[in-house]
Amino acid sequence: MTDPKSIDGVLLQWGDRLFYPPNRLVRPREQPRLRPLSSRERVAWLRQRIEAAVVRRAPQVMVKVTGGGRGMKSIAAHLRYISKNGRLEIEDDEGRRSRGKEALREIADEWRYGGSLIPEVSHRREAFNIMLSMPRGSAQPSIVGRAAREFAKAELGDHKYAMVVHDHQANPHVHLSVRAESKTGRRLNPRKADLERWRETFAEKLRELGIDAEATRQATRGVARNYPNLWQEKARAQGRLRVDRPSRRAGAAAGRSRAASAAAWAGMAEALSRSSDPRDRLLARNCRATANQCREAALRGAADLSRASNAQEQPHPSRAVDRPDLTR
Hints:
Elements: H1 4-18, H2 39-54, E1 62-67, H3 72-82, E2 90-92, E3 97-98, H4 101-113, E4 127-133, H5 141-156, E5 161-166, E6 173-179, H6 192-208, H7 218-221, H8 230-237, H9 252-273, H10 278-313
Antiparallel strand pairs: 1-4, 2-3, 2-5, 4-6, 5-6
């Protein structure tokens, strides 16, 4: 059997390629530094994440930027939409809760004048609309709301924001509208790395409340779903969507990510299978199964890409033109 320390070393080597450390920093100069984890703590954290991903298949959180307001006209319209025109309770960044149209007008005025003036119509995005949710049946609406509140304090505490919990639909979710300009004048500009960190923070806040939640990337899980944008969902419901978005992600970058994940899972499975601990050997079998799932996802993505490439090379029937025979 292999020395446990060498197994831990392999987990650190491959695990860093699959998972991000908790609350990783995207812009460390703009955020407070966190205490670095020791090697023992990192291994313990990685084992928890591995077990959640491949054994328990913990529910995955969703954090999505659904749009944003370019001026107070669209911001106020979104506040009316998420609060059902004031019928649902809306909570601001200071913890004040209110209902009614008058409360919405007060929030809008506070946003309009609370910093740089936001005009009625602006050429730039003055607010971001964020939605946080969990899969159906995985958490009570009140718990999702509490986790969203703690998430907003941790990630958006320097901004004015308003949140509304929607518990009247199939899966409870939270709408969060955030003023782009912070109280110190910095502007919010979320990128992919920020969204990944936001998912991790939201999952962490749910776990602190006793909910099994994870924020593992699709490539790490061997999943290749391509979720439609909000406008596509609305257009489909209204019968206006002309072209459906592909259901699976394809592309060279996606293929490389899945192949790298497969290699990492296989490497960890090999190390864990040599452990004297039966729990590690059980974990190894699950890691190996996930590696196979990642390989299959990579192959399906390559096949999708090949079919799309061949379809583009074929001449469109409507573009075919009969040319006169110029041979003599």
